[in-house]
Amino acid sequence: MGTLTGTTPVLTEHCTHKLPSSCRLTALPICCACQDNRPHSVSGFYPVYIDGVGVVTRGARWQRYCFFCKEFWSNRLAATDPPIEPNHTRIPEIPDQTEFLDKWFDYHRGFKIADGEKIEIKPEIPWREVDPGTLPVKDDLERLARIRHVPEVRQQQEGPSESIESALDALLGEAEGEEVVPHGHLAQAAQPPPPPAPSRRGPTEADIVAAQQAKDRLEEADRVLADVEALHLRLTQELAAAQEQLRERQNERRLAVQENRSAQQLLRVLGAQGRSTERDAQRFARVWGTMEDIRAHGSPLTNMFNNAYARYNIAEEVRQVERASDEMTERQRELLAQLGPWSNRISDADYSAELEAPQEAEEKQQTLDDEESNRPPPKTDDEMTVPLICKICLQQPANMAVLPCGHLTMCKIDKAWEL
């Protein structure tokens, strides 16, 4: 198997078994044995699962550790002299591995201190070939590093112990003055005392004091029991209230989750509708632009019809001139010569040249403000103001219009004046 931590540096938070056992609990600074907080079994056996049988109390304490820790403790118990029974172990305290750990760390450091001198030592076997729980030496006996087990520990563990039930029965018996019968292995280990010799004297002062003390202890136990029951009742009520609050919080959280889901679905629906509306707007967008764009830049169809209408007006003018007089001006002859037999059709190339002549004629026309015109001078504001008085009574403003001409000529006739 090999030791994987033979060259790993020691950290302050490591337990003493972390590196020697090559424990695989990499997330913790302590080994499996130091991390195991189960109470120690009196029988020395622990629950283990066996295929076809189920969970039975047949396994060792270290049987469910990591593979390296399991091999470490198996080798260390095999090196105990004399052999130790499983029910006498208290891993990792018993059997004591201090001697073995000191030797292992000497090989790990590469030196040991003897009589105040530093002596260099090197592993005789590569760490990859050293099993957990052994030393890196070639000698088999030295590799196991046998340790001696203190036999007094077994005697202490095998001695009788008193249970809680026996202690309570003893106290109650002392208070009531009755004989107390031992229970369990205590009854087997201890022989029943011989019956006391009959005595005619009454209870002594010591017996009375002992009985009073037992009575006081019993009352104290009753008070403690009452306090414990009250505390249990209060804790039960608080637990029920806390559970009720937890259920309410869970219901509120469930409702909040449902509302959040509904809001997300609504947002998705609204987003889909918005995207659909945008696509529809893009699909039905004006090909030629808005009305302002059409008016500003002009449409090809509009320009085509405007040009055709202009050519029609020119041709119509020419036809009117032909009908009005037989004498034709030089300009009219040129126009007719350009039109030829197709007088109602004018090409786009000649359209610009034909528009220059009307523009020159318009420039020669007189305007309203021309001094050479025979128009009278403009009137003043007073002259332009016309009094709106009744043309009949000459005393009231004219506010009645006559149809169908619409002239304001008379005032409103009062009903009293009606004939």
Detailed description of the structure:
Helices cover 49% and strands 7% of the residues. It has helices at 18-21, 32-35, 67-78, 98-109, 140-144, 152-158, 164-176, 184-189, 205-283, 291-297, 300-324, 330-339, 348-364, 381-384; strands spanning 46-50, 54-59, 80-81, 111-114, 117-120, 147-148, 400-402, 407-410. The strands form four sheets. The chain has a two-stranded antiparallel sheet with strand order 1-2. The radius of gyration is 62 Å and the shape is elongated. The termini are far apart.
Key terms for this structure?
7% strand; 14 helices; two-stranded antiparallel sheet; two-stranded parallel ribbon; elongated; 419 residues
Q: What is the N-to-C succession of helices and strands?
A: HHEEHEHEEHEHHHHHHHHHEE
How are the strands of the largest sheet arranged?
A: 1-2
Using DSSP, what is the number of strands?
Answer: 8
Low-confidence stretches: 151-162, 178-191
The description of the largest β-sheet is: 2 strands, antiparallel
Overall, the morphology is elongated
Percent in strands: 5-15%
> So how many helices?
14
| Secondary-structure content class | mainly alpha
What is Rg? 62 Å
- State the separation between the terminal residues, measured CA to CA: 141 Å
**Helix coverage percent:** 40-55%
The whole-number mean of residue pLDDT values reads 76
Secondary structure layout:
Blueprint: H1 18-21, H2 32-35, E1 46-50, E2 54-59, H3 67-78, E3 80-81, H4 98-109, E4 111-114, E5 117-120, H5 140-144, E6 147-148, H6 152-158, H7 164-176, H8 184-189, H9 205-283, H10 291-297, H11 300-324, H12 330-339, H13 348-364, H14 381-384, E7 400-402, E8 407-410
Parallel strand pairs: 3-6
Antiparallel strand pairs: 1-2, 4-5, 7-8
Helix pairs in contact: 7-9
